[in-house]
Design goal:
The complex is a heterotrimer of chains A (about 350), B (about 260) and C (about 180).
Chain A lengths: L4 E4 H11 L2 E6 L7 H9 L6 E4 L3 H13 L3 E6 L1 H16 L4 E7 L15 H6 L9 E3 L4 H18 L2 E7 H5 L1 E4 L29 E2 L7 H18 L3 E4 L6 E4 L2 H16 L4 E6 L1 E3 L3 H8 L4 E6 L5 H9 L5 E5 L8 H15 L1
Parallel strand pairs in A: 2-3, 2-4, 4-5, 5-7, 6-7, 11-12, 11-14, 14-15
Antiparallel strand pairs in A: 1-8, 6-13, 10-12
Chain B lengths: L31 H14 L6 E5 L7 H4 L3 E4 L5 H11 L4 E7 H7 L1 H10 L4 E6 L2 E2 L5 E2 L18 H4 L5 H6 L4 E8 L3 H19 L4 E7 L3 H4 L3 H15 L3 E5 L4
Helix pairs in contact in B: 1-8, 3-5, 4-5
Chain C lengths: L1 E9 L4 H14 L3 E6 L9 E9 L11 E6 L2 H7 L3 E9 L14 E4 L2 H7 L6 H12 L7 H9 L8 H14 L1 E2 L2
Parallel strand pairs in C: 1-4, 4-5, 5-6
Antiparallel strand pairs in C: 1-3, 2-3, 6-7
Helix pairs in contact in C: 1-5, 3-4, 4-6
The chains are: A alpha/beta (about 350), B alpha/beta (about 260), C alpha/beta (about 180).
Chain lengths: ~350, ~260, ~180
Amino acid sequence: MTEKTLRKGNEALAEGAIRAGVRFFAGYPITPQNEVPEYMSAHIADEGGAFVQAESELAAINMVYGAAATGTRAMTSSSSPGISLKQEGITYLASADLPCLIVNVMRGGPGLGSISGAQGDYFQATRGGGNGDYRVIVLAPNSVEELGNFPKLAFDLAEKYRMPAMILADGILGQMMESMAFNFDPVDPNKLGKFDWAVDIHKNGRAKANVFSYKGDNLIADVVERAKRYGLIEKTEARFEERNCENADVILVAYGLSSRACLEAVNHAKEQGLKVGLFRPITLWPFPEKQIAALAGHCKGILVAEMNAGQMIEDVRWAVNGRIPVRHYGRFGGIVPDPSEIKEELIKFANHAE
Amino acid sequence: MQNDVIAPENLVYAKPKLMNDTPMHYCAGCSHGVVHKLVAEVIEEMGMADKAIGVSPVGCAVFAYRYLDIDWQEAAHGRAPAVATGIKRCWPDRLVFTYQGDGDLAAIGTAETLHMLNRGENIPIIFINNAIYGMTGGQMAPTTLIGQKTTTCPYGRDPKLNGYPLKITEMAAMLNGTCFVSRQSVENVASIRKAKRAIRKAFQSAMDGKGSSLVEIVSTCSSGWKLSPVKANEWLEEHMLEFYQKGDLKDTTGY
Amino acid sequence: MKKEIIISGFGGQGVLSMGKILAYSGLVAGKEVTWMPAYGPEQRGGTANVTVIVSDDRISSPVLSSYDIAIVLNQPSLDKFLPKVKPGGMLIYDGNGIINPPTRGDITIYRIDAMAKAAEMHNNKVFNMIVLGGLLRVVPFLPDDALERALYKTLPERHHDLIPLNMKAVDEGKEIIKKCV
């Protein structure tokens, strides 16, 4: 644990990534994540790492693909339209079973959209915008502190399961400052051990190493193995936070920035005597499906609050499987929901669910 | 004994050790096989067999990893220079090179190619220019000659409809980041020797930290061109080399 | 305790760093704080603003549509944020360049001529601290030493010799802030 300091979200993320052992960063300017490459360009070389300002988002993610193949902790960051461009590289990384970190500091969309914070990329992150049968581990921080600490978690998971991981933040988390501390000691990349899958002829006495994503005849075995791995992750790696859910009649489900407004709404509603709780998925994939299914066994309704027109609600509905009403409350186009409006919605829904 | 003639002491030529015995999928008369051999020889002669990492493209050379026993990473179409940048920045002591065709390098990967070269990454590019998309069945490439027929310009490339063949190697020579830019071919023994010298220079310059380099090999695609291997070589000399003139376009290596 | 504050003025006037010092003061006083700038194209064209929230409890959203306190340092900022002060809230403005002074019966309005005072002190850079001194004089939601401790935390050591001057500016701010009636 370091001392609490005031940090901007994007800078906490960048510093957290360097502390997590990231030694290769490639990126391209886009608001509202510019402080990440700026911080990296100033500091990663001090740790013996490399920073490349790429000619495009496509080039940046493909540089990460190359760097990841060496076993280096490699990452890129961008914002929504830039993440769309990166999908080609992400599916290649998934296909080659390479760990890496992709950060999306989301802005409004579709298209060029706006630069305000938003949560419109839930589908893109959890379903994947690239081709083929693949998954990406998706972590959704809701504070500057989590933004700074999640790069370590992302790499630990990505390397354990040999797949890309994503941190899905948003413009407001990236731009805001709040007090935070790092909860882990700096990782020494030289002590991570050698990876037997890296492109390195000297390792393990192999004749040669091939990192490739064209599988030809081996594709079937490959995707079947990967699907098994995904199944294991779904079973064991779902992360979430529960507040007050045990005896709640109505439960709010929210992630990232909107979960903060929801927590305040829940606290206000409790003061008015309502039995309400908050469930916050921290991993969006794997989605905490089992836990939400269990909640549906004892509460009367679920309200999903997102800064989009209704995306995570599909996963919640899938988990609930029609047993209780599930409603959506969305503010989008760059609007952050106000706790008071969520509380009103919660009260309306609670009365209706009675 | 009848077999005396192939006794080891009588051997005057051997294939490079880095080339394995996997039967190649390349068509008869294709230039890829010859260039693969030259790359293998150069790596071997430089003593870099344990430190060479090739980045293969999408196209016919996607299977390069099957034939050359070095480490390989396969890139998405056009992105080999970006992938190579990622590897080289993490491992500066390795010989990292890309092997790309004309569609990969001069169409979908133009940005990655020119920017990698312009950054002066210590990475050589081997550029196979056969003026056609071979793997996908003979479509028009950025380097297809005016009047040349392909499956997507069946009446011949018309600049009004299709624009002009792109001399990307000339563009590369203009970039401050490149130290060596050369255009070669492999249709006869003399050309093969010169091409090998160019590849050697490019690879050496990368290990000496002199910057990026590009060696274009004007190549044949007898299947795509619908010509016999011999006729393809003749067509190459008559038409390709007339437009794509051979020689060193830039050399600041000082070798 | 929870104070939701907007600080708005010309770009380059030190609005963002004023917000930062205020946020750090909250941090050293053991409060939860958030600092949220207007960013991107919004920050182009000469005006800048930052939202600072200081609270005893965890802060839900760093972005607000109305404020307890607005500190406005030019006319466009005054015009924009005067209507966004919550009833019963407060507006503090610097009179420099203000042609249409604020009028609203349901909030408390203070004037602090910090720019003029900074000029008088021959140091434009202490402008920030004059304003913050005035703020904490009329709304003492942070302990007296918080600003000084924040300066020690935010300023590089080579500038620590400037802290006494800055604290003098804080005192000046406390002197010159005036309630408008």
